[in-house]
Write a structure and sequence with these properties.
The complex is a heterodimer.
Chain A lengths: L11 H7 L2 H15 L12 H16 L2 H18 L2
Chain B lengths: L2 H13 L6 H14 L4 H10 L3 H12 L4 H11 L2 H13 L4 H10 L2 H13 L7 H26 L10 H10 L7 H20 L5 H23 L1
The chains are: A mainly alpha, B mainly alpha.
Chain lengths: ~80, ~230
């Protein structure tokens, strides 16, 4: 959209704040389906999604690889729902 | 080979390695679209119209949760708001172009194309045809994204529901944040956003929880940035 603007009017501070946009929006999409059950109430006990998400975070932190993170979470989730829950 | 074609080809070769993670991402999107009961045309149409992986997956989640069109459009716009930054950065190099060029280039300017063309523009300011680099990089992304969406749609119609693939939505966004995990301020912003969304999921009307959570988190981010600027 800013393609339509002629000058570089965005200040460094705005750029800095815009860099927080993913961190500000994505968790709002991530958290509810993990922590809430189908009725919309908090589900903290025996919740395989929380454990799988923690595992994915650990893998993501060390590997810095997006696809490895998704696969780690998904595979650990399948493992948990088929063998434990 | 003339300069235009050379620059176009450079854009294509520069962006190609970045296409490797795009393929599974597109497949995930297609599979989730089918899983949530959208038609193949709708799933594919979104890839053509929106052409932005994260925002398309966010749209799927809101759509399946029954959010209104207004809230959905605002949320998708918010997820894509980082493109404002890309546009602002590129205005320095491309503001002299005709409006048709600007519209075409804005359409294909996604994360990967921005990354490679930004590097190229910095080094080749004098190249009269430097915008062909972005054209090549952008359309490579476009073609790969459409093909992988179709693969996902085909795959999604055969994958059983028991696999709980909608959990992939959370995992995908989590994976997109891995570069922020090492920054303390970003972790605070993430926690604010996640907590507000979880608490507000049932209490905030019109499924506007993403918007409210994002605004609260951005306020905290602004506060943290201001404190940081004062220190310097």
């Amino acid at each position: 959209m800013i393609f339509l603007l002629k000058e570089d009017i965005v200040s460094d501070k705005v750029k800095k704040i815009l860099s927080f946009v993913p961190a500000a929006i994505f968790p709002a999409i991530i958290f509810p389906p993990i922590f809430l059950n189908n009725e919309g109430s908090l589900d903290l006990e025996n919740n395989p999604k929380i454990l799988a998400a923690i595992f994915a975070i650990i893998i993501g932190y060390f590997s810095k690889n997006i696809i490895a993170t998704i696969l780690a979470g998904l595979i650990s989730y399948w493992f948990l729902i088929f063998f434990y829950f | 080979m003339n300069n235009r074609l050379k620059t176009l080809a450079k854009g294509i070769t520069d962006v190609s390695p970045l296409m490797i993670p795009v393929v599974p991402f597109g497949i995930i999107y297609g599979v989730i679209g089918m899983e949530l009961g959208l038609s193949a045309y709708m799933t594919f149409g979104m890839s053509v119209i929106i052409f932005g992986g994260a925002s398309q997956i966010a749209l799927l989640q809101l759509f399946s949760g029954g959010a209104s069109s207004f809230v959905t459009i605002i949320s998708v716009g918010a997820v894509n708001s980082r493109h404002l930054l890309y546009g602002a950065v590129f205005s320095e190099y491309l503001s002299h172009l005709k409006i048709t060029w600007k519209i075409i280039l804005s359409y294909v300017l996604i994360d990967q194309a921005f990354a490679v063309s930004n590097t190229y523009f910095k080094k080749n300011k004098e190249n009269e045809y430097k915008h062909y680099h972005l054209l090549g990089a952008g359309f490579t992304c476009w073609i790969i994204w459409q093909i992988s969406t179709i693969l996902g749609i085909v795959l999604g119609s055969v994958v059983p529901e028991e696999l709980g693939l909608s959990f992939t939505i959370s995992l995908t966004f989590l994976a997109l944040l891995i570069s922020d995990f090492r920054k303390f301020k970003n972790i605070i912003v993430m926690l604010v956003s996640g907590l507000v969304a979880t608490i507000g999921y049932t209490t905030i009307p019109f499924h506007a929880y993403i918007i409210v959570a994002a605004l609260s988190a951005l306020m905290v981010a602004t506060l943290l940035t201001s404190i940081d600027l004062k220190k310097k």
